[in-house]
Amino acid sequence: MQYYISLSLVIVLFISLKIQTDFIPHTDEYNNNPAGKELYKDFGCTVCHGNNMEGTDIGPELSGLHKYFNVDELVQYLIDPTAVMARKDRLQELDEEFDAVEMPSFGDLPEEELRILAEYLLKNE
Question: Does the domain made of 29-122 have the CATH classification 1.10.760.10?
């Protein structure tokens, strides 16, 4: 009997911890998203856009993206930059300014990871 009570308590504890962690958002108000930050580095974004999204000689800074994109639009841009660029004047201007390197397509990567990255980038004021 005592074994079943102990097992029940362990199960209840596990379930309560699982429920609590399910409500942790991907990002917080201070853009302290470790998953997004890691994806930014892992995908090689730092090469063109800098370690802190400040931009470099070959890629623009990434502040204020929320003025031009929502999450879905940015994910689509990451999947197929050329197609989205054709519809956005601002992107065409940036393409001319930073013409040495073309924005790569990340269409072969999982969309959920691209969504996490997009959320991270959009929080950069």
Answer: yes
